[in-house]
C-alpha cells in the first residue's frame, strides 16, 4: 500500500511505531498531488517547502515523544481558512493576491497539533455554489468521473480525499458545503453544531450559518479531526464554551436501541432511484444492527431553501462589502473616482454567482423589503429550528439523503441557478437549525458514482451521529471503494 | 409671521477605554498612522469582533446618569455603506434595541428649568480617517489611517425638545460635564472626543407640525454649535419667507464664515440596510450589573450643587463654580474632609488657587498645593496666627516649595501681632508723626482713617492683626 493511501489513523499508527516518518508521508502526498492534480484541480495553492519544514519539525517532535493524533499528518485546507504568509483566495479573483498577516484559530490549532499543511484547496468562490464550478481558479473535477462535478462548495476538500491527494481536509458548511461534496466523492464529511468550532480566521460567507468541519476517508479520521479543531474560542463570541468530548472514544460500534427518525418530508416521490435504493439498504443495515426507526415530520422543510437563500445572501452582501479594492485584493485600474473604483474593482473581482447573491442579499435587506424578506425568513428559520427540536424529542438522530441525485455533469446546471440551489435541499435545514450532521458513503450509482447518507444529530450531539456513522461504516464496505485515477 | 425652532441633538462621545470596542488595540490619540491596528480593526477577511466589557460598563454609567432605562437585552446591528475609511464596509452599531432608552436631562436657561428628553444611547465603533495630500511615503495621494477605527463611541440622541441655540448649548454643556464627571470621556472637543450633529427645523409659532429638518454634522465646540444653530434657524426662516422650501439634507458648519452649507442632499441618502450583526450574540445585562454600576457612580453635578447650597450654605454662584468639574469639586471636598471651613475653602479654591492655576496653565488635578496643606493654611487664618493678606504670601511660597504653611510662617516670622501693647506703640508713633492728618480726622474727614490703617500695617510689615488695629486706631484717633 502506498503511503498516500493511508487514512489519518493508519498513518498515525505508523508514525507512532516509527515505521514511517512524516517527511516520507509528506513527500508521498506531494508526489500524489503532482501526479493527480492537473486532472482533478483540487488545489489552488500547494506549499511543498512549508510542508516539508513542518514535517521535519513533526518528526523531531515525534522523536521527543510529543505525538498527538495529528502530528506529522499531511492535511489540506479549503482556501477559505486564513493562513499567515500563505496566499488565501477564497476561490476568488478579488483575493487572488491576498497574503494574510495572521492565522485563524483552527489553523493555529492544527499547527500546534503538529499537522503538516500541504496546501490550500479549491472551492466555489466565497463558498457560494454546490458544484465546485464557480471558482476563479477553474472547476474542480470529481475523481470518480472527471466529467462530473465533485459537489461544493468544499469541492477541493472532498476531491482531494477521493483522489488520495490529502490525508484529511477541512472544509466549511454553510448550506451543505461539506456533506454534499463528501457524498458525491465518497468521503465522510461532518458539519458540527454551530458554535462547536471557532470561525475566527474563516472568511465569512453567511456568518450565522457557516461552520468548520472535516472531510476524511473514514469516520475515525473524522472524529480525530473534529477533536483537534473543536472548542471555545475567546476570539469568536458565537463559539460555545462547552468541553470537547473524546469523539474517537464515542465510536463504540453500538447502535442497539438507537432511535433513528425518517422525516417524511425528505422521502419525496421523485427521489433519484439510485439514492432511494442506497437509503433503503442503509435502513436495513441499521435494523440489522438493532437500531429502531420512527417516522417523524419536519413540516417547514418546504420553506428551507427559500429561507436559506434570503438569510445567507443578506449576510453575504454585508460580509463581502470589505472587498472594495481599497486595502487589499484586486483593485481595478484607471478608475475615474472613488465610487468608480469600488464599482469596477468589485465588477472585475467577483464572479457571476457571487454577484448574483450580493444582489439578492442587498435587495432582501433594503428598506421597504426588509420585513417582507429578511425578517420573514428569520421567523421561518425559528419554525424550522422548532421542527428539529420536536423531532429530537422522539429520536436520537435523523436519517436522510444528502443530495437528491448523485453527482451531475460539469456544466449541466450552470445556467439554471434555481435547479442548482435545489441540490442542497436536504442539507440546508440543518444549517438553519444550527445543528450537526454527517455524510457517510452508503452506496454507488449505476454510473459508478458514490452516494452518501446523512445522519442529523441534536445540537452538540456529534458523538451520537459519529457513533452511528461508524457502526454503519463497520457493517459495510462503501468506504473501501476507491476512485481510479 | 413668528417662527419657532425645533432642535434635536445627536452627540458622539468617544469613550476613554484603554482598548478598542471590538479588539485589544490601544485607543491612544495621536500615534503614527496605522500603528494601533490588528487584523480585527483592519477588517481583514476572516476576523470577528469581540465586545469590550468596559464599553458596556461605560454605556450603563452614561445611561444611569441621564435617567435612562438600561435594556436587559440589546443587540448590535450592521450599518452598511461604502467609504474608504470604513474597513469592513459596515459599521457595527446598535439600532432597534439600544442599550439605553427613555432618559432625560434638566437644563437651566435664564433661570427657567427645562427637561430635555433623551431618546436613546447606543454603543458603536468609530471609522478611521482619510489623510489627503502630502502623505509621507505616498506623495500627493490620499491615505487611510485606521488607528481610530473601532474606537468606542456612545451616541446620545435627544428628543426634539430643544427650542433655541441657547438651550442646545446648555444641554450640551450639561451632557459634557456629566460624561467627564463619570470618567467615561476626556471631553476634549478639539480632538473630537465630544462632537455633535444638530437637527434643526422651524415652524410657525403655535404650530404642532414640525418643519422639514436639516442635519448639521460634526460641530465640535459649544460656540460653533450656537453659531451653527442660529445660522440654520435664520436661513430656514428666510428661505420660507421668500416662498422657498427647506430641503431635508446634511449640512456642514464652516467655522470661518459661521455659516452652514449643503454637504449632500436627500437624493443621495443612504439605505444603510441595518440588520442584527450575526457575529455578535445579543448583549444581556443583569439587574445586578446595573445596580452595582449605580452604586459606583460618582455624585453628579446637580446633586452636588444642591448639597453645597443646603448643607454647606454656599451661594448658587459658589456651588456652580465649585462643581464645574469633578476635579474641582473633589479638591474642595478634600479640603472639607481635612477640616477646612466651607466658606473659607470655597473662597480660596475659587480665588487664590484658581488664579495660581490659571497663571501656571495648570489643571486642578496638578495643583502643587495639596488640599490638606491649603486647609492647614486656612486654619492658621482662623486661629488668627496670620492675616488673610499674609496668607497669600504664604500660599505663594507653598506653591513654589514643598513646605508646610506652619514652617513658612515660622521661618519668615510672619506670625500675626495681636498684642495690643505692641500695636498701641506703633499707632502712637504714627499719630505723632502725622499730626496734620490727625487734625483732619478729628475735623470730620473720616476718610483719613484708611491712611492710618495703611501706615500701621506697613510699619508692622503686615503682621499686625487688622481687627485689633482698627479697634485701637479708632479709639485713639477719636481721642
Ligand atoms: Zn485592533
Which properties best describe this structure?
heterodimer; A: 485 residues; alpha/beta; eleven-stranded mixed beta sheet; 13% strand; B: 479 residues; alpha+beta; Arc Repressor Mutant, subunit A; nine-stranded mixed beta sheet; three-stranded antiparallel beta sheet; 16 strands; 39% helix; ATP-binding (chain B); Asn/Gln-tRNA_amidoTrfase_suB/E (chain B)
Please write out the topology:
The complex is a heterodimer of chains A (485) and B (479).
Chain A: H1 8-16, H2 22-40, E1 43-46, H3 48-63, E2 74-78, H4 105-113, E3 116-121, H5 155-162, E4 168-172, H6 179-185, E5 188-191, E6 212-216, H7 219-229, E7 259-263, H8 273-289, E8 292-296, H9 304-319, H10 338-349, H11 352-365, H12 371-394, E9 397-401, H13 417-421, H14 428-433, E10 436-444, E11 450-457, H15 462-475
Parallel strand pairs in A: 2-3, 2-4, 7-8, 7-9
Antiparallel strand pairs in A: 1-3, 4-6, 5-6, 5-10, 9-11, 10-11
Chain B: E1 3-14, H1 53-65, E2 69-70, E3 73-74, E4 76-80, E5 90-94, E6 100-109, E7 112-125, E8 129-132, E9 142-145, E10 152-158, H2 165-181, E11 194-204, E12 214-219, H3 222-241, E13 249-254, E14 259-265, E15 275-276, E16 283-284, H4 287-296, H5 301-310, H6 316-322, H7 326-337, H8 342-360, H9 371-382, H10 388-400, H11 405-412, H12 420-433, H13 435-442, H14 448-459, H15 466-477
Parallel strand pairs in B: 12-13
Antiparallel strand pairs in B: 1-10, 1-11, 2-6, 3-16, 4-5, 4-15, 6-7, 7-10, 8-9, 11-12, 13-14
Helix pairs in contact in B: 2-3, 5-6, 7-8, 7-9, 9-10, 12-14, 12-15, 14-15
What would your notes on this structure say?
The complex is a heterodimer of chains A (485) and B (479). Chain A contains 15 helices and eleven strands. By secondary structure, chain A is α/β, with parallel strands linked by helices. Chain A has a domain at 302-376. In chain A, strands 1-3-2-4-6-5-10-11-9-7-8 form an eleven-stranded mixed beta sheet, with helices on both faces. Chain A starts with 7 loop residues before the first helix and ends in a 10-residue tail after the last helix. The relative contact order of chain A is 0.14. Chain B has a nine-stranded mixed beta sheet. The model of chain B has no long low-confidence stretch (mean pLDDT 92). Chain B contains 15 helices and 16 strands. Chain B is elongated. Chain B is an alpha+beta fold. The N and C termini of chain B lie far apart (75 Å). Chain B has three domains: 3-289, no CATH class; 299-412, no CATH class; 420-478, Arc Repressor Mutant, subunit A, CATH 1.10.10.410. The chains are: A alpha/beta (485), B alpha+beta (479). The complex binds zinc ion. Zinc ion is lined by residues 20, 23, 25, 37-38, 40-41, 150 of chain B. Chain B: It holds the Pfam family GatB_N. Chain B: It catalyses: L-glutamyl-tRNA(Gln) + L-glutamine + ATP + H2O = L-glutaminyl-tRNA(Gln) + L-glutamate + ADP + phosphate + H(+); L-aspartyl-tRNA(Asn) + L-glutamine + ATP + H2O = L-asparaginyl-tRNA(Asn) + L-glutamate + ADP + phosphate + 2 H(+). Chain B: One of its GO terms (biological process) is translation.
Amino acid at each position: 500500500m502506498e503511503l498516500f493511501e493511508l487514512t489519518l489513523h493508519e498513518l498515525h499508527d505508523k508514525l507512532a511505531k516509527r515505521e514511517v516518518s512524516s517527511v516520507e508521508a509528506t513527500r508521498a502526498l506531494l508526489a500524489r498531488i503532482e501526479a493527480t492534480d492537473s486532472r482533478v484541480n483540487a488545489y489552488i495553492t500547494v506549499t511543498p517547502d512549508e510542508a516539508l519544514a513542518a514535517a521535519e519539525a513533526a518528526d523531531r517532535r515525534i522523536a521527543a515523544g510529543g505525538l498527538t493524533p495529528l502530528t506529522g499528518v499531511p492535511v489540506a485546507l479549503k482556501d477559505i481558512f486564513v493562513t499567515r504568509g500563505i496566499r488565501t483566495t477564497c476561490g476568488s479573483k478579488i483575493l487572488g493576491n491576498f497574503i494574510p498577516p495572521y492565522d485563524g484559530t483552527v489553523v493555529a490549532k492544527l499547527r500546534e497539533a503538529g499537522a503538516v499543511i500541504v496546501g490550500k484547496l479549491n472551492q466555489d468562490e466565497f463558498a457560494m455554489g454546490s458544484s465546485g464550478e464557480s471558482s476563479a481558479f477553474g472547476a474542480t473535477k470529481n475523481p470518480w468521473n472527471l466529467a462530473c462535478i465533485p459537489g461544493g462548495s468544499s469541492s477541493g476538500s472532498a476531491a482531494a480525499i477521493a483522489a488520495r491527494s490529502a490525508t484529511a481536509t477541512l472544509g466549511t458548511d454553510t448550506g451543505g458545503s461539506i456533506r454534499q461534496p463528501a457524498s458525491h466523492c465518497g468521503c465522510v464529511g461532518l458539519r458540527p453544531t454551530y458554535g462547536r468550532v471557532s470561525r475566527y480566521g474563516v472568511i465569512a460567507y453567511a456568518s450565522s450559518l457557516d461552520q468548520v468541519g472535516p472531510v476524511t476517508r473514514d469516520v475515525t479520521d473524522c472524529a480525530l479531526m473534529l477533536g483537534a479543531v473543536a472548542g471555545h474560542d475567546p476570539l469568536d463570541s458565537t463559539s460555545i464554551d462547552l468541553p470537547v468530548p473524546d469523539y474517537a472514544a464515542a465510536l463504540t460500534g453500538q447502535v442497539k436501541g438507537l432511535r433513528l427518525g425518517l422525516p417524511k418530508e425528505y422521502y419525496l416521490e421523485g427521489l433519484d432511484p439510485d439514492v432511494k435504493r442506497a437509503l433503503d439498504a442503509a435502513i436495513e443495515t441499521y435494523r440489522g444492527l438493532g437500531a429502531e426507526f420512527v417516522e417523524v415530520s419536519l413540516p417547514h422543510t418546504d420553506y428551507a431553501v427559500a429561507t436559506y437563500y434570503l438569510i445567507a445572501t443578506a449576510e453575504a452582501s454585508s460580509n463581502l462589502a470589505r472587498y472594495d479594492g481599497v486595502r487589499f485584493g484586486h483593485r481595478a485600474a484607471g478608475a475615474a473616482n472613488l465610487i468608480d473604483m469600488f464599482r469596477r474593482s468589485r465588477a472585475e473581482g467577483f464572479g457571476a454567482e457571487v454577484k448574483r447573491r450580493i444582489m439578492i442579499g442587498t435587495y432582501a435587506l433594503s428598506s421597504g423589503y426588509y420585513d417582507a424578506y429578511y425578517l420573514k425568513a428569520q421567523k421561518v428559520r425559528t419554525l424550522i429550528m422548532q421542527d428539529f427540536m420536536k423531532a429530537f424529542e422522539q429520536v436520537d438522530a435523523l436519517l436522510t439523503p444528502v443530495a437528491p441525485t448523485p453527482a451531475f455533469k460539469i456544466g449541466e446546471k450552470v445556467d439554471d441557478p434555481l435547479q442548482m440551489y435545489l441540490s442542497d435541499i436536504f442539507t440546508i435545514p440543518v444549517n438553519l437549525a444550527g445543528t450537526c450532521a454527517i455524510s457517510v458513503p452508503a452506496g454507488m450509482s449505476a454510473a459508478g458514482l458514490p452516494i452518501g447518507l446523512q445522519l442529523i444529530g441534536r445540537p452538540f450531539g456529534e458523538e451520537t451521529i459519529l457513533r452511528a456513522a461508524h457502526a454503519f461504516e463497520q457493517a459495510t464496505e462503501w468506504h473501501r471503494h476507491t476512485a481510479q485515477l | 409671521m413668528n417662527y419657532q425652532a425645533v432642535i434635536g441633538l445627536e452627540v458622539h462621545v468617544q469613550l476613554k477605554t484603554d482598548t478598542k470596542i471590538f479588539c485589544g488595540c490601544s485607543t491612544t490619540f495621536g500615534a503614527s498612522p496605522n500603528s494601533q491596528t490588528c487584523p480585527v480593526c483592519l477588517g481583514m477577511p476572516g476576523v470577528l469582533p469581540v465586545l469590550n466589557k468596559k464599553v458596556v460598563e461605560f454605556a450603563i454609567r452614561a445611561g444611569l446618569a441621564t435617567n435612562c432605562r438600561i435594556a436587559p437585552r440589546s443587540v448590535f446591528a450592521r450599518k452598511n455603506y461604502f467609504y474608504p475609511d470604513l474597513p469592513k464596509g459596515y459599521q457595527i452599531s446598535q439600532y432597534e434595541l439600544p442599550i439605553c432608552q427613555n432618559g432625560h436631562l434638566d437644563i437651566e436657561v435664564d433661570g427657567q428649568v427645562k427637561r430635555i428628553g433623551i431618546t436613546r444611547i447606543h454603543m458603536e465603533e468609530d471609522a478611521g480617517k482619510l489623510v489627503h495630500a502630502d502623505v509621507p511615503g505616498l506623495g500627493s495621494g490620499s491615505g487611510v489611517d485606521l488607528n481610530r477605527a473601532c474606537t468606542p463611541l456612545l451616541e446620545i440622541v435627544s428628543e426634539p425638545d430643544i427650542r433655541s441655540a441657547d438651550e442646545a448649548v446648555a444641554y450640551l454643556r450639561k451632557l459634557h460635564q456629566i460624561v467627564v464627571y463619570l470618567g467615561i470621556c476626556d471631553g476634549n472637543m478639539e480632538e473630537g472626543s465630544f462632537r455633535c450633529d444638530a437637527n434643526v427645523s422651524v415652524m410657525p409659532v403655535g404650530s404642532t407640525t414640525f418643519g422639514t429638518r436639516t442635519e448639521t454634522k460634526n460641530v465640535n465646540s459649544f460656540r460653533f454649535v450656537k453659531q451653527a444653530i442660529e445660522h440654520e434657524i435664520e436661513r430656514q426662516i428666510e428661505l420660507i419667507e421668500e416662498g422657498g422650501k427647506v430641503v431635508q439634507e446634511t449640512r456642514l458648519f464652516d467655522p470661518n464664515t459661521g455659516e452652514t452649507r449643503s454637504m449632500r442632499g436627500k437624493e443621495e441618502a443612504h439605505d444603510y440596510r441595518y440588520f442584527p450583526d450575526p457575529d455578535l450574540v445579543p448583549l444581556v445585562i443583569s439587574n445586578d450589573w446595573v445596580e452595582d454600576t449605580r452604586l459606583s457612580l460618582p455624585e453628579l453635578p446637580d446633586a452636588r450643587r444642591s448639597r453645597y447650597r443646603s448643607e454647606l450654605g454656599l451661594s448658587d454662584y459658589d456651588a456652580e463654580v465649585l462643581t464645574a468639574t469633578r476635579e474641582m469639586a473633589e479638591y474642595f471636598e478634600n479640603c472639607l474632609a481635612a477640616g477646612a471651613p466651607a466658606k473659607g475653602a470655597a473662597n480660596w479654591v475659587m480665588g487664590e488657587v484658581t488664579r495660581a492655576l490659571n497663571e501656571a496653565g495648570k489643571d486642578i488635578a496638578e495643583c502643587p498645593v495639596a488640599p490638606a496643606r491649603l486647609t492647614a493654611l486656612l486654619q492658621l487664618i482662623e486661629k488668627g496666627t496670620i492675616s488673610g493678606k499674609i496668607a497669600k504670601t504664604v500660599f505663594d511660597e507653598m506653591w513654589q516649595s514643598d513646605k508646610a504653611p506652619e514652617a513658612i510662617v515660622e521661618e519668615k516670622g510672619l506670625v500675626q501681632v495681636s498684642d495690643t501693647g505692641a500695636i498701641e506703640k506703633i499707632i502712637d508713633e504714627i499719630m505723632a508723626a502725622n499730626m496734620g492728618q490727625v487734625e483732619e480726622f478729628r475735623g470730620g474727614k473720616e476718610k483719613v482713617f484708611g491712611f492710618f490703617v495703611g501706615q500701621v500695617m506697613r510699619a508692622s510689615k503686615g503682621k499686625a492683626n487688622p481687627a485689633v488695629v482698627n479697634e485701637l486706631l479708632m479709639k485713639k484717633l477719636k481721642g
